[in-house]
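Below is a filled-in request sheet from our internal design queue. Each sheet records the structural input a requester submitted and the sequence that came back. We keep these sheets so that new team members can see what a complete request looks like end to end.

REQUESTER: design group, bay 2
PRIORITY: normal
MODE: inverse folding
CHAIN LENGTH: 153
BACKBONE (tokenized):
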């Protein structure tokens, strides 16, 4: 009896994560465009505010670009839709590993931070991808660290 229940749970979980890695890759490219637009808008606003404040607002240019990406991910993943704009377009959402519920903003921000650290270090990114391809549930290294799972919406 236990074997059948475990197999049914595994089969159900596998269906939820089937094709998630390729969808997440496409979603990342869409989100990169969205983040680029947000960064561009941020820089334009800072430029205008810098003129108005006689250069004082130009200090905000020191805010690193990944901070905007982390904030974007934290706000969109912790929202009721549980996904970034790219994830919504590709049919992926993020849930907590244990509960299957929405992810808190702090966890979503940590998840994004882990992703960007891996992305900017090629060795960590390769390890991250290998972990995702090797696991049956398709969870990558930064997913494991944050305690989340990407599933099909």
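RETURNED SEQUENCE:
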């Amino acid at each position: 009896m236990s074997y059948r229940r475990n197999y049914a749970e595994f089969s159900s979980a596998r269906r939820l994560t089937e094709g998630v890695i390729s969808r997440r890759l496409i979603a990342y490219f869409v989100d990169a465009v969205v983040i680029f637009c947000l960064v561009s808008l941020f820089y334009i606003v800072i430029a205008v505010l810098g003129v108005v404040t006689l250069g004082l607002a130009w200090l905000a240019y020191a805010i690193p670009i990944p901070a905007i990406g982390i904030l974007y991910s934290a706000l969109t993943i912790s929202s009721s839709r549980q996904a970034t704009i790219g994830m919504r377009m590709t049919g992926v959402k993020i849930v907590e590993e244990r509960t299957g519920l929405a992810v808190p903003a702090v966890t979503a921000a940590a998840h994004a931070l882990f992703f960007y650290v891996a992305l900017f270090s090629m060795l960590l990114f390769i390890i991250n991808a290998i972990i995702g391809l090797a696991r049956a549930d398709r969870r990558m290294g930064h997913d494991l660290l944050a305690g989340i799972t990407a599933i099909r919406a």
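SHEET NOTES:
- The CA atoms of residues 74 and 106 lie 7 Å apart.
- The beta strands are 92-96, 148-152.
FILED BY: M.R.
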